[in-house]
Amino acid sequence: MNIKVKLISTEMIQPSSPTPNHLKNFNLCLLDQLIPAPYAPILLFYPNLGDIKVHEKSALLKKSLVDTLYRFYPLAGRFKDELSIDCNDQGVNYVTTNVNCHLIEFLNEPNLESISQFLPCQPPFKVLAAGDYVTNIQINVFKCGGIAIGLCIAHKILDGVGLSTFLKYWAGLACSSNDVQYPNLMANYFFPAEDLWLRDTSMTMWSSMFKKGNFVTRRFVFNASAINNLKTMSTSSHIKHPTKVEVVSSFIWKCSIAASKQKNCSNKRHSNSILTHIVNLRKRAAPSLPENILGNLLWLSSAKNTAKHEMELPDLVNQVRKSISRIDDRYIKRMRSDEGFNLMRKSLKEIGEFCSKGADHYGFTSWCKFGFYDIDFGFGKPIWISSISSRCLFFMNLIILMETKCVDGIEAWVTLDEEEMNMIVGNQELLVFASIDPSPLTIFP
């Protein structure tokens, strides 16, 4: 299907009240320097349910966003520099479009490469600079009255948990709910930033992970039954109760290792590999950091597999769990102490050096348990949550894990070099457990 998106309007949505002068300068926290991506784009697709007309939905979204920005005032500002945001209330870049088809037609066989049309910013995303918008939102209206909400909010201020906090608050106001959670804007208190040393260190690491290739994105969907089978296969004396994120991450890693070996069999070169996971620090600290804190309260875990030792699934799951469990309360205390500079710098340097020696890197991030499928603006819950396709010639192996609508499943958005991807999707073991690019309308427990 040839999807066409027609621009209807572009406007600035400003907070309902001016930001006080003493809050005009918002300092980013140290860990906001870790993630190089300008945005973590997300799309929420809503079917047309009930009797609410499109213009009523549009008015509801705008009015509730205006009131939301009063509390989330940095999102309505502009970047001052790499350390701060000017909370000048200039507003959110808010785009409205019409789509030339019914939502069900698109969801029946979604073209991943056309999804970016539903976003207010088009990939490849440029590096954010002084004066750029912090928040960009696009409301796409399908012929049936269904809606897709596309968001590109600067990753420098929001991680996945923060994005969830923002969306839940916005939706709560739209529904006139009294059960809304105000944002905590004190990330800089927990991890203050005085300069850009972490940006420089992390950029060196990330650059070792990027490579040339013809990168493509495919969706691997694991239902609850498949995940339970993977958990059974992964159980060992070391791992008694593996989580769904642990087993799916490790299984995709296992399939990727096999594809890499197949790809390199002609030159008899077998690469080492490394799996990294973005780890949320909030609940790992003691006492835990506020769940509603805005900022990138994240760190990077790393699990390694050497070509000399072929690991089975339980071994890989054990490696993944051990790597994540190292980031515990004691580790976070050290990050925040005087030794934090050396600790964090050493951690990122070790990952970068391992990758720069030719190891295959697979970067994972999990959007599970963020509650995106519960976000209801008053016209029902989303039928599908999506990321976007990354077809480009210079990228990194990236896997985004998110829950399916039934919650018990996992939808993995996998971006790899096309040659390796073709080998993985032809792997019969993968096909036993995962459906490749199924229609969101057919995903069941």
UniProtKB/TrEMBL annotation:
Keywords: Acyltransferase, Transferase
Stretches of the chain forming a coiled coil according to its record: none
One example GO MF annotation: acyltransferase activity
InterPro entries: CAT-like_dom_sf (IPR023213)
Keyword Transferase in annotation: yes
A matching Pfam family: Transferase
Family label: Belongs to the plant acyltransferase family.
Name of this protein: Vinorine synthase-like
Organism: Nicotiana tabacum
Lineage per the UniProt record: Eukaryota, Viridiplantae, Streptophyta, Embryophyta, Tracheophyta
